[in-house]
Specification:
With about 80 residues, the protein is of the alpha+beta class. It contains three helices and three strands; from the N terminus they run E-E-H-H-H-E. The chain is globular.
Length: about 80
């Protein structure tokens, strides 16, 4: 299985864990996030937020993990 993992950012890691039944359209939608993970560094918003905004059919190919010991990000101030 292919796997690509980002560094911890805001207490989360994002792993690209594509399923065997991935479709061309799901892959196409995931490419933007994959490019950020591999080349974009910590472009805002973080990869975990970008993955969370994807449709469920695409999101299922990613795994977001909370990193133990990392502080949760502070809530945005209004």
């Amino acid at each position: 299985m292919n796997r690509l993992v980002t560094q911890a950012h805001y207490g989360k890691t994002v792993a690209w864990t594509p399923r065997d039944d991935i479709t061309a359209s799901e892959l196409a939608e995931a490419v933007a996030v994959l490019l950020i993970i591999t080349h974009g560094g910590f472009i805002m918003p973080p990869a975990a937020e970008r993955v969370a905004a994807l449709p469920e059919s695409v999101r299922r190919h990613f795994t977001i993990t909370q990193v133990r010991g990392e502080p949760a990000p502070a809530p945005p101030k209004d």
